[in-house]
Design a protein that fits this description.
Blueprint: H1 2-9, E1 10-12, H2 18-28, E2 32-38, H3 45-57, E3 65-70, H4 77-84, E4 87-90, H5 104-111, E5 119-122, E6 127-129, H6 134-144, E7 150-156, E8 159-161, E9 164-166, H7 172-185, E10 200-203, H8 204-207, E11 212-213, H9 218-230, E12 235-242, E13 244-245, H10 250-267, E14 275-284, E15 287-296, E16 299-300, H11 303-312
Parallel strand pairs: 1-12, 2-3, 2-5, 3-4, 7-12
Antiparallel strand pairs: 5-10, 6-13, 7-10, 8-9, 11-16, 14-15
Helix pairs in contact: 2-6, 3-4, 7-10, 9-10
């Protein structure tokens, strides 16, 4: 099945023209929301928003709305995104009756209550080397194949160290955590080039039925749950070319890795913990100095269950 899926469900962004996609969108009557979860990304979020608005909303109407979900930023992310033309919401202000926790997955889950698109396209806010073809590339399979429910992007993702640039070594958590997890427990997903890619798209009718980890496990969890409910044939992937972003410190990647591991462990029935203590070490005058973090492993229930509870209430 994996080889057949790779042959039929792996695409390149230039497989469709903007005209083709606009016509497909019009004929099916589907609407598109671009969602940008952001935390302290004032330096880059404005460029992401303004370029998409100009190329894909004002010009060809491929995107119906651009929505930034600000996840407790301490910088000017909200103001910059709003000035650039996005509809901006603070994550904590969306459905305050449901509470709020920090995290990328939380922002994406909350987006379902403030967007209207039948198709949701997610893009990270920290992009520094990218182009607007990312969005139509991700929409291609969803607009032209009703059997596809989730689309993952993949790309050259360089890692810069001094004057050396390694073309495909930017995804450290992918290579050190996600790919070994997939090899051991979810081999049907081995054909995905970048399972943790932040650029992906999904039908609302699917996303609102999935449990959503509030942190960095959201992408892997969505893949596992989609395969379990709809089968591998419901997933496609698209080569988007090249994508670069700022590299996070190693200790921050440790937190991300913990959340990814926990998201997989919950789907294997190995844990139900809502948090875990993570001890890491820093260099100090006296040698190694411990730093203790409490890493949240919360998951939000399917949005449909929240909608139903609200109606019943």
């Amino acid at each position: 099945m994996t080889q057949e899926w790779l042959a039929r469900r792996t695409h390149a962004w230039h497989d469709w023209t903007l005209g083709d996609l606009a016509a497909a969108k019009q004929s099916t009557g589907q609407t598109v929301s671009l969602v940008v979860p952001a935390r302290n990304e004032a330096a880059t979020v404005g460029d992401v928003v303004s370029r998409v608005l100009d190329a894909l909303m004002d010009t060809v109407s491929l995107v119906d709305e651009v929505v930034v979900i600000d996840s407790d930023s301490e910088d000017a992310t909200f103001a910059v995104a709003e000035r650039a033309g996005a509809v901006v919401h603070r994550s904590r202000d969306i459905r305050p009756d449901l509470g709020s926790v920090p995290g990328k997955g939380e922002a994406m889950w909350k987006s379902m209550f403030v967007t209207r698109g039948d198709l949701l396209v997610f893009m990270d806010a920290d992009l520094i080397d990218w182009d607007t073809h990312f969005v139509p590339g991700l929409l291609g399979p969803l607009l032209t194949d009703p059997g596809v429910a989730l689309v993952k992007g993949f790309y050259e993702r360089p890692f810069s160290h001094g004057h050396t640039v390694a073309a495909y070594e930017g995804g450290r958590v992918t290579e050190l955590v996600a790919r070994p997890l997939i090899a051991l427990h979810f081999p049907e997903l081995a054909g995905l080039v970048q399972p943790l890619a932040g650029e992906w798209a999904i039908r609302r009718t699917l996303f609102e039925t999935l449990g959503v980890p509030t942190g960095y496990a959201v992408e892997l969890a969505a893949l596992i749950d989609t395969v379990r409910t709809l089968g591998l044939e419901a997933i496609a992937q698209v080569d988007l070319g090249r994508r670069a972003h700022r590299h996070q410190p190693l200790l921050d990647l440790g937190v991300m890795a913990t959340q990814v591991l926990a998201g997989a462990a919950k789907r294997l029935g190995l844990t139900s913990a809502e948090s875990v203590g993570l001890r890491q070490y820093l260099h100090g005058d006296g040698g190694a100095v411990p730093r203790d973090n409490t890493v949240r492993l919360d998951e939000r229930p399917p949005a449909t269950s929240v909608h139903e509870a609200q109606v019943l209430g």
